[in-house]
Amino acid sequence: MALLQIKIDDDLKARASLLFKELGIDFSTAVRLFLNESLKEGGIPFKIGYGEEKSKSNDILKSGYITSFLNGNYKMTLKEINEEIRLAREGRMAREAKEQEANNKNQ
Known about the structure:
Blueprint: H1 10-23, H2 27-41, H3 56-71, H4 78-106
């Protein structure tokens, strides 16, 4: 495993460390997340520009990336992801059918 040393402003490190702690990750994990996402995206994994508004969907998406990384799901192929979605939908449809059947019996 390689050791990465970077120089950053003390205040930036303190504020970022606090944020990462609130997210339940350490600084090293956050850097690994950034590097993995950069490789996956083939570039910086977020838009760089002026006057960007924070959107709820971006926050949710970033939170999903962190959860996926921590769970090891970032290694899943598109085929595996689609299969999980298909199984989840089938399960939901089966539950809804049972609920509907129970409601019909009660009427």
